[in-house]
Amino acid sequence: VNTVVNDDGYLKGYNTDWLGTVTPLEKHTNLKDKKIALIGAGGAARGIAFGVLEKGAHLKIYNRTIEKAKNLADELSKNYINVDFASLDQIDEINAANIIINATSIGMAPYEDKSLIPKDLITADHIIFDAVYTPYKTKLLTEAESQGATIIPGLEMLLYQGTAQFSLYTGVKAPEDIMRQSLIEHFNLKP
Ligand SMILES: NC(=O)c1ccc[n+]([C@@H]2O[C@H](COP(=O)([O-])OP(=O)(O)OC[C@H]3O[C@@H](n4cnc5c(N)ncnc54)[C@H](OP(=O)(O)O)[C@@H]3O)[C@@H](O)[C@H]2O)c1
């Protein structure tokens, strides 16, 4: 739960991170039966994993600490059949995926000059999604763009989990353009 709505004294919990993931991804592709490689098994990865599985994708989770990847995959397997996991040592196999998602903190300070995904595994057919939103274009996204891949910066996830929260709190459609501009100014991003 990342959103608690007070409905006449009755508190209801929601999660909107999954919408922050699938809304920008679905602007580029239908997720049904797509192969998704998710790097990371922490809090951000959890919402992302739920979102893509809910849309019918096939998910493989890669994490430095294999036990955490296994625990997340085991938990998701209770409700979804298309879930697998592996260690970061098997990262080379991710070029078989359609969509590659970084949900680790690698790419943001103090790791701005690092990426867990070797550039030569990325092709023009990939969609590369980075949950990291500062800097706007991480090393991973810069390298992916140079390989001709479609890129989705973490700002999009932050924006769309926020627009979903706005609607839950107020009952009206969120002012998407104003919110995007506010985030860019607040984090001093350079799109
Ligand atoms: N755009 C958005 O709306 C949004 C929303 C939430 C989070 N985020 C971003 O997503 C990132 C992850 O956040 P989180 O809340 O999921 O953090 P978290 O729960 O602490 O998880 C961190 C993840 O990063 C991995 N990791 C950390 N250092 C690593 C290293 N040196 N090498 C390899 N893997 C490493 C961890 O692997 P281990 O399990 O092995 O430690 C774990 O999978 C952050 O940059 C955060 O700002 C963005």
Structure report:
- The chain has 191 residues and is of the alpha/beta class.
- The protein has six helices and eight strands; from the N terminus they run ββαβαβαβββαβαα.
- The strands form two sheets. Strands 5-4-3-6-7-8 form a six-stranded parallel sheet, with helices on both faces. A two-stranded antiparallel ribbon has the order 1-2.
- A hairpin with a 2-residue loop joins β1 and β2.
- α1 packs across α5 and α5 crosses α6.
- The radius of gyration is 16 Å and the shape is globular.
- The mean pLDDT is 97.
- Bound molecules: NADP nicotinamide-adenine-dinucleotide phosphate (NAP).
- NADP nicotinamide-adenine-dinucleotide phosphate binds next to α1, α2 and α5.
- NADP nicotinamide-adenine-dinucleotide phosphate (NAP) binds next to α1, α2 and α5.
Number of strands: 8
**Ends apart, CA distance between termini:** 29 Å
Report the sheet with the most strands, covering strand number, pairing sense and barrel closure: 6 strands, parallel
Task: Give the percentage of residues in beta strands.
Answer: 15-25%
Helix content: 25-40%
Instruction: List the secondary-structure elements in sequence, H or E.
Output: EEHEHEHEEEHEHH
Query: Over all CA atoms, what is the radius of gyration?
Result: 16 Å
The coarse silhouette is globular
